[in-house]
Specification:
The chain is of the alpha+beta class. The chain has one domain: Beta Barrel (M1 Pyruvate Kinase, Domain 3). Helix content is about 15%, strand content about 35%. It has five helices and 20 strands. The strands form five sheets. Strands 1, 2, 13, 14, 15, 16, 17, 18 and 20 form a nine-stranded mixed beta sheet that branches. Strand 15 and strand 16 form a beta hairpin.
Length: about 300
């Protein structure tokens, strides 16, 4: 499909009809520590909190309820150069080639992170009785939900899961959307890591486009796991940050503003979107290659 300026959600409804048995999960991701690089998975348990272990820890500024976030420019490059993965029930953080266990070396983790961030931080677990916030910088671009301001936002904003996700327990993107955005935005690196999905779905023979726009309010199944597809994913400055696999570039957001700014009912406004949020309504295990299917009758 040849990309065209102004392509939006109203043009993607016919893609839903093209879903076949070849709509499958092609990558799974978990981010054990908020705003750090995550890990690829071959399979994972899922429950109402999403992918097992996803965003189960965060760094918090000592003496405050503010979570350290890569949406804050002063710390973004440092955070996104670190990686977290799970080793059984333990979370291991990789910092400049050094592996530190959050279970067995918690003090060392906090001291190392505090030194490199130049501010005292501690590892934090979700506390359902305390409202955490994170600092977020929004570039001055017309068409964003918020533009040209720095603002503290609550964690989480809409889901009730006991983790450090921003809005929903799960975040899905199709391979078709990723390719389409890359084609619309030549010269800018578009690795999957820019958008931090939990899973990428490939609809195989379906034409490229922002397919997920047509899924809002739908239900889906992956194996024994059922999902509510809740709303398109509004994008923010996080997608533009420099990472080991890509350079910083505001063009990512500018392109989404031009080509996929759509109505997001939860925000009562239009937003530059890519992907869709979801909540799991049943438990189970999903794996690479599992079939993804819409299971309601809304066609």
């Amino acid at each position: 499909m040849t990309p065209s300026v102004g392509f939006s959600g109203v043009h993607v409804a016919h893609y839903v009809e093209q879903m076949t048995t070849s709509a499958v999960i092609t990558s799974l991701w978990r981010y054990p520590v908020k705003s750090l690089q995550g890990e690829r998975l071959t399979e994972s348990a899922i429950d109402s909190s999403g992918i097992e272990g996803d965003r189960g820890l965060a760094l918090r500024y000592v003496g405050t309820n503010t979570i350290v976030s890569a949406k804050q420019g002063a710390v973004a490059d440092v955070l996104l150069s670190w990686t977290a993965h799970m080793d059984g029930d333990d979370v291991v953080i990789e910092i400049d080639g050094e592996s530190l266990s959050c279970t067995h070396q918690r003090d060392a983790v906090e001291q190392r992170c505090s030194t490199l961030l130049d501010r005292d931080v501690m590892l934090a677990d979700p506390n359902p009785t305390e409202q955490a916030v994170y600092s977020s910088e929004w570039p001055d671009l017309d068409g964003l939900v918020i533009s040209g301001v720095d603002v503290d936002l609550p964690l989480p904003m809409s889901t009730e899961v006991p983790t450090f996700v921003d809005l929903a327990a799960l975040h899905l993107i199709t391979a078709q959307s990723l390719r389409f955005l890359a084609a619309l935005t030549p010269g800018i690196e578009m690795p999957t890591e820019r958008f931090r999905p939990n899973m990428v779905i490939d609809l195989d023979d379906t034409e490229d486009g922002f397919i997920e726009n047509a899924w809002e309010g739908r239900r889906a199944r992956i194996g024994e796991v059922e999902l509510n597809l809740t709303m398109p994913t509004p994008r923010c400055v996080r997608t533009t940050r420099k990472q080991p696999m890509c350079e910083e570039d505001l063009g990512v957001l500018s392109s989404l503003i031009r080509h996929n700014r759509i109505e997001v009912e939860a925000f009562a406004t239009n937003a530059a979107c890519l992907g869709i949020y979801a909540e799991a309504t049943s438990t189970g295990t999903i794996a690479l290659g599992d079939r993804f299917e819409l299971i309601d009758d809304d066609r």
